[in-house]
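New to this. Please check this record:
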Amino acid sequence: QEIVSGESEEESNGVNLMEFSDEILLHILSYVPCTDLVLNVRRTCRKLATLCLDKSLTHTVLLQKDYKVNKDKVKQLMRDIGKEIYQLNMAGCYWLPSSTIDHVTRCKNLVKLNLSGCHVTSLRLSKMLSTLQHLRSLAIDVNPGFDASQLSSECKATLSRVSELKQTLYTPSYGVVPCCTSLEKLLLYFEILDRSREGFMLSGQLMVGESNVPHYQNLRVFYARLAPGYVNQEVVRLYLAVLSDRTPENLHAFLISAPGSFAETGATKNLLDSMARNVRLDALQLPKAWINGSGLLQHLKFNNPFYFSFSRCTLSGGHLIQRVINGGKDLKSLTSLNLSGCIHCLAPESLFRKAEDDIDSSILESLVVSCCNLRHLNLSAAHHHSSESLGNHLCQLLSRLKHLLSLALPVCSITDVAANVEKPPTASNLVPQTFGRKVRIGIQTYPRNLAAQANQKIESSVFWALMGSLRFLETLEIIGSSFSSAMPRNEPAIRNSLPPCVRAQSVGDSEVAAISQLTYLQSLTLAQLPNILTGSGLVNVGLQCQHLRTLSLANLGMMGKVVYMSALMDMLKHCKCLRDLRLEQPYFCAGAQFFQALSHCSSLQRLCIVSRSGTLQSDAVMSFMANCLEVIMCHMFMGESLTVCKNLQQSIVRSFQADRPALNVVIFPLLHEDLTEVIRDVPMRHLDEITLFKSRVAEEPPNLWW
């Protein structure tokens, strides 16, 4: 209707949208959600009715973040274009009832289907897959109660032709893996809790009668990501047991992401030995215990590697260069490298080295020269201190990586060495970096534009130069090397935090202002920057980074007072594209002024606030939810009482759930003993993407799935 009503005005100005070529109109329409195209736009005029059903627009249907879609819309969509859909992504549509899946049977030509995060029973899965004879790629969840014996012979026939399977496990099970006899890519996400809701300890043993012979003979990619817990480790070993007997000859990507300690066993050692003899890899990630102290990397062979992750390993820089990068030889194929928590990766050896010692710039230089096409690099969770050698600062060396799209660095790595040594203590340095009473440090003012900020900042700093050289960077994380979130997975909230690194004490407003040079920045994470005095740099980021969609701020400035609140509110007024906002700061006051500023973020969809001793105003929250119609997730873990939190949560759900089917609200005291029980009910999409803090750069290989 808006298009039709606007035609007369366009004609009077000499411009008519309908006069554009079909190619241009199809490109414009490709940015419109498929549900809007089919159910709304195509009803406006005859030309759009034809274009909206073009194969280029109906071939692939993405519903995974279409939070306004409901069961009736899906039903109508499948009825209208079901036969034209070849790829359907409904990942994370947790709000849709399980009966919605029944309508997928209309998509007879489906080749790829993603139902991760959807409610699917064994019987419904069987009925649906029985009709999808062309299916080759499938993603599903395996929940408690899943029974493979309920799968029909027609369903198993479909599964036998599936070559790509992504399976998220919430219960010990093989799921549909034994039925998939043609697997080439297997992705496994283990989210099994150690205890039931009733408090009983769970076992990692599989259900009686389940086949224990997965078919891996054609496997090319094996990926497993484990949530914390011993049950997940027990179950993944069962999946690996078959691999240890016979390693697939075509295996080229082997990746296991496991937090904490995941001990190597005889079976896994046999598997790795077999891999060293029989395969050449393009992607590798192993638990730290499997690499530390072993000569495994010396024996593994690589073809044209595109992804390496040595997260949390004690791998030294010497071993990294000699065993992985072939002594500094050409490794242009590598596009993604995760060295998060690899504290000695930029030092020649780790035996007598302290984590805080200076890095060896020659190792980083070899890495930069050899891997000149890196697009994703993670160096967080470590102390990477540069020496005073001219031209050898970490930031100066990284500036050569012109293709970088995402980068994660520790705070202490971006400081100028000379400035750090010569600069006298600032006000924030004199304030204890611990929880405590509010400390007055004077009237806080900040410049309102980039030019004024530049007067305070020597633009010849190495970090300023680095940001200027990485013009196409889309994701940036600057995280304190000792930072830990107050909300770890499956554990009570952390009450005390470690102090920041001494080298990080001078990092603050000026460095944040330097980030504003990143015109195409889409995601920004800042955690534990001690020298934030006013937050002035945030205003510059809001003004200059107009593509910013995700913002995560944690423990900025001193801990007893939110010193950057005024600047944050000014920043938010400019963030028109912001969709996800996560704030973690003690004593944060989520009041009327904050929510009024946040209401300017017209595209905001998800909000998460984590604050020890933080306060909120219920009326302000309700007003914000009423004004921001796109918000479908509101998570607030504060210092308010359980009664206040429950009443506010119920009010939000009661007032807005009917118009926002995907609405997910969790408001709960941060230090309450039942926090972990509340967290387990949060949809995995929100929990993994925003609620839990973690570094996400190079977390997985690029284009791992869809």
Summary: The first strand starts at residue 60 and ends at 62.
